[in-house]
UniProtKB/TrEMBL annotation:
SUPFAM superfamilies: NAD(P)-binding Rossmann-fold domains. Belongs to the short-chain dehydrogenases/reductases (SDR) family. InterPro entries: NAD(P)-bd_dom_sf (IPR036291), Sc_DH/Rdtase_CS (IPR020904), SDR_DHRS6-like (IPR051122), SDR_fam (IPR002347). It comes from Methylobacterium terricola. PANTHER family: DEHYDROGENASE_REDUCTASE SDR FAMILY MEMBER 6, DIHYDROANTICAPSIN 7-DEHYDROGENASE. Keywords: NAD, Oxidoreductase. GO terms for molecular function: oxidoreductase activity. This is SDR family oxidoreductase. The lineage of its organism: Bacteria, Pseudomonadati, Pseudomonadota, Alphaproteobacteria, Hyphomicrobiales. Gene3D superfamilies: NAD(P)-binding Rossmann-like Domain. The keyword DNA-binding does not apply.
Length: 248
């Protein structure tokens, strides 16, 4: 079934790589007008048909200016995020602030900027990328990451509840371990820390997956298409866990 997002305008943050890019590409394939953003606009090359914008989601001023330029949208996907490695003893105040600013407050900023237009039109879908870690489970060395992603779930539910009769919906996608450039960076860091090969470090990530494989950005994008479409118009305030059974 093609054209599931025809006529919809969508903003996707962190669309330069990984889950954000896969979502932007899937939205384009389903007929949406996509406003793709990334801190590094060069990463948006190759998203044929998308309107590309450089956007720092940590800047309230930049987001406000972008929202004025973009105008009203039907769909907002918040995909920007940062994975901190370590326990509470490894987390400095600066790292705590960075994790919450990028993983949570950035969503607060973009929702505040685009929600009024959705309310005025009586329609909108907000999709926040959370994580299976922090939503339904924990994982070693994911202290502040898990805490910040749990906050994303709370933020999502609060927005959904406050505007439940307005035609605006908010849902969270909670991925498990997904193959992405971000994961490649974490695997390389783990290999260096443990003085092992990159292949061995990657296998350690795979071995902890009940399905015996990593997830793909495209699998997360398929869920985002559903949540952005009118097919999910009776769904709001939910955490949609797609983790290959990690939280079972």
């Amino acid at each position: 079934m093609a054209g599931r997002l025809t006529g919809k305008r969508a903003v996707v943050t962190a669309a330069g790589q990984g889950i954000g890019r896969a979502i932007a590409a899937a939205f384009l394939a389903e007929g949406a007008e996509v406003l793709a953003t990334d801190l590094d606009a060069g990463k948006l090359e190759g998203l044929k048909g998308a309107k590309a914008f450089s956007l720092d989601v940590r800047s309230e001023e930049a987001i406000a200016a972008f929202a004025r330029q973009a105008g009203p949208v039907d769909v907002l996907v918040n995909a920007a995020g940062f994975v901190h490695h370590g326990t509470i003893l490894d987390c400095t105040d600066a790292e705590w602030d960075l994790a919450f600013d990028l993983n949570v407050r950035s969503m607060h900023r973009t929702i505040r900027a685009f929600l009024p237009g959705m309310l005025e039109r009586g329609n909108g879908s907000i999709v926040n990328i959370a994580s299976a870690v922090g939503a339904d489970a924990t994982a070693p060395n994911r202290y502040v990451y898990g805490a910040s992603k749990a906050a994303v779930v709370g933020l999502t539910k609060a927005v959904a509840r406050d505007f439940i009769r307005s035609g605006v919906r908010a849902n969270a996608i909670c991925p498990g371990t997904i193959q992405s450039p971000s994961l490649d960076d974490r695997i390389a860091a783990l290999a260096e820390m443990n003085k092992t090969s990159v292949e061995a470090a990657r296998q350690a990530f795979i071995d902890r997956q009940p399905m015996g494989r990593l997830g793909t950005p495209e699998e997360m994008a398929a869920l985002a298409v559903y949540l952005a479409s009118d097919e999910s118009r009776f769904t709001t305030g939910q955490t949609h866990v797609a983790d290959g059974g990690f939280t079972l």
